[in-house]
From TrEMBL:
InterPro entries: DUF306_Meta_HslJ, HslJ-like_sf, Hsp_HslJ-like. Gene3D superfamilies: 2.40.128.270. Residues 126-227 form the DUF306 domain. This is DUF306 domain-containing protein. The lineage of its organism: Bacteria, Pseudomonadati, Pseudomonadota, Alphaproteobacteria, Sphingomonadales. It comes from the Bacteria.
Length: 234
């Protein structure tokens, strides 16, 4: 029989901080700028050397040398043979999910114009309605055979860190999130599931901070330097 037991009320989480650019390490190539759109689906990659465009769900492929960006009144423009790209800063929704990006991107490929989003993935406006899966806990990748999740509704959070299910209420006030009391099932799990769950619950016993790197992940960090990294699902 599965029993429910209360967990310690989770302490306040610090305010969500805005995304910041990751510094480029010595000898590393600059990160490519990515953009995408829907109906028809398309993607664009801008590297220091080339513009690589795949349009019409991959049926149209254009790769041209990067001509360099020209500054415009609304952003910047790349003008090359067969391809013109305009990047305008400002929050943009991809139209297929709740993800928001830093820029609106318009591509004209062989005379056909499409509009989508590009640049950094912005933090969600609110936790409510978002769902995540764990990537790592306390520096260790999560076990691939143990499904994980962390989801937020208007006033409740729920999920699994690899073994038991947990859920409870939460509230946000003055940029602080407080959760609990939480309830969790009490099962023993084989392999790494139990260990990674224990590490997550240990992390959540102390004050933790939420941050949203520009790659669309959520990082939960404790005072002792332990961190859980999650990837957004919706």
């Amino acid at each position: 029989m599965i029993r429910l037991l209360p967990l310690l009320a989770l302490p306040a989480l610090a305010a969500c901080v805005p995304a910041t650019d990751n510094p480029q390490g010595p000898g590393e190539a600059p990160a490519a700028y990515m953009a995408l759109g829907t109906e028809p689906g398309w993607t664009l990659e801008i590297t220091p050397a080339r513009l690589n465009y795949a349009g019409d769900y991959g049926e149209t492929m254009i790769a041209v040398p990067n001509p360099g960006a020209q500054t415009t009144t609304t952003g910047k423009r790349y003008t090359a043979d067969r391809l013109t790209v305009e990047v305008r800063p400002g929050p943009c929704s991809d139209g297929m999910s709740d993800r928001r990006y830093a820029d609106t991107v318009t591509v004209t490929a062989d005379g056909k114009r499409v509009t989508g989003c590009g640049g950094d993935i912005l933090p969600p406006d609110a936790l409510a309605g978002t769902s995540w899966t764990f990537v790592s806990i306390a520096g260790a990748p999560v076990a691939p055979d143990r499904p994980t999740s962390l989801a937020f509704t208007d006033d409740r959070l729920s999920g699994s860190a690899g073994c038991n299910r947990f859920s409870g209420s939460y509230r946000v006030a003055d940029d602080m999130l407080s959760a609990g009391p939480l309830m969790a099932t009490k099962m023993a799990c084989p392999g790494a599931g139990m260990a990674q769950e224990s590490a997550f619950f240990a992390l959540m016993r102390g004050p933790v901070r939420l941050s949203f790197p520009t790659d669309g992940t959520l990082e939960i960090s404790g005072e002792g330097g332990q961190t859980a990294v999650l990837k957004r699902v919706i």
